[in-house]
Fold this protein.
Amino acid sequence: MDTDNAIHESNRAQHLIRFLKKLPISNYLNKSLEKTLEDYLQSENSKKRKSCEEYKSYDKSNKLDNFHKVLYIELKKIHTPRKFALIPLSIENRKYFPGYKQDFYLDTETGRLIVHVTSGNDGDILGDREAGNYIVGKLQDWFRFHKKLKDGSILRIDIIEREKLYRLSVQSY
């Protein structure tokens, strides 16, 4: 239960930071509140929370341990992902995937694909954990299989083995 509370607190703090940036209050007050929340996220509690966020991979009996990370990705506009066969990543979700242009497996209804994160900036270094905005690699068949995808569809990505194996499915059309 402590793990869930720590993660919940972190998510609340991150949402507050985003909310504060939208408020029409003085820049000084906004930055002061934002700094306080960011300090919290960097505190000792934050370090404990981050270690709790790390999922566990399969145990020896091939069953998932009690913590399993699931990511949800909204396809705000389906045109670009379908046309270029890519999955957009938010800043929040990017950290759960391997470094820039490092291959990993993505299990789908159409088979196991070898994919990677790409579309970084000039000068991004191979393996950079923050570079890249999209998952790409042989996703054309998956998009053809899911013809019902539309603007606002939600994808679900289960982290099976971090840095190596993920599972992609559609949460809602």
